[in-house]
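Memo subject: From amino acid sequence to discrete backbone structure tokens
Action wanted: Derive the backbone structure tokens from the amino acid sequence.
How to read it: Take the token row as a discrete description of the fold.
Attached in line: The record itself begins immediately under this heading.
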Amino acid sequence: MPQHAALPEQNGRSGLLVTSFLIVFFGLLLMLLRIAQQEYVMAIGAVWVANALTMAVHALYWKRHGLRGALKIGVAAQFAVTVAPLLFGKTGLALVLLMLGAEIHYW
């Protein structure tokens, strides 16, 4: 029987980029839909969920392939922004708004 050539081993970067791009793309689509419907808090929620999903993908990549120093800081900051609303309430929401570069007023 003829032996097949071994497939080259991939380091996973292209899969990480595609997965992150798809999550961000659909998160932004949901955000734009919520803004069009004038549901601004739901728009922030869509961005927060997209951030949490990309954070999970980046953490899995870090565990499997490792990361360099600056990228580790980025993933840690992304984790802090993702978990902050759960731990700190309104102050944590302010961190998410800082991530978005926006401001929301509650009446």
